[in-house]
Specification:
By secondary structure, this protein is an all-alpha fold. It is built from 6 helices and no strands. Helix 2 runs antiparallel to helix 3.
């Protein structure tokens, strides 16, 4: 029995189609990278992720700063008024870096509206000694409370 087979030509690859697919893929990849790296996209989505991962290292850094401030107060190298000013600045810097909310130039009323009760309590405590002619607060207790707030920060 003699059976004849007719084989088809091997599939002919179209290089024109391959070139078009490669170009389209490159264009989509570049567009995705541009969108991903755009400031608006970063501010809206990615910055929150990066901030959350940085909070533990921020806590350590700012607790160290406050402990150094406490040592300066205990050794009388800094006045209470200057210590309150630095304490307020350190807490505000920490909140800005941890949340992205710029509280560096916010008043205590504006901070209350943000819904951060610990920060509001600290600002209430810092304001009178920080802006009075003579600081009348207990700076050591204020620094210790600030350290606790930073340690509990989520």
């Amino acid at each position: 029995m003699n059976i004849q087979y007719e084989l088809q030509e091997p599939f002919k690859y179209s290089w024109g189609l391959a070139k078009i697919l490669i170009v389209v893929t490159i264009i989509l990849l570049v567009a995705y990278i541009v969108i991903l790296l755009s400031p608006r996209f970063y501010d809206k989505y990615l910055s929150k992720l990066f901030r959350k991962s940085r909070v533990p290292s921020l806590k350590v850094r700012y607790v160290r700063k406050l402990e150094n401030l406490l040592n300066m107060v205990n050794s009388n190298r800094i006045s209470n008024k200057e210590a309150y000013t630095r304490l307020s600045l350190y807490i505000r810097e920490f909140v800005k870096k941890a949340t992205g909310i710029n509280v560096l130039s916010s008043s205590k009323e504006e901070i209350k509206k943000l819904g951060m009760p610990d920060l509001s309590r600290l600002m209430e405590e810092y304001y009178p000694p920080e802006f009075a002619k003579y600081a009348n607060g207990n700076i050591i207790d204020s620094i210790e409370r600030s350290i606790e707030v930073i340690k509990r920060w989520n």
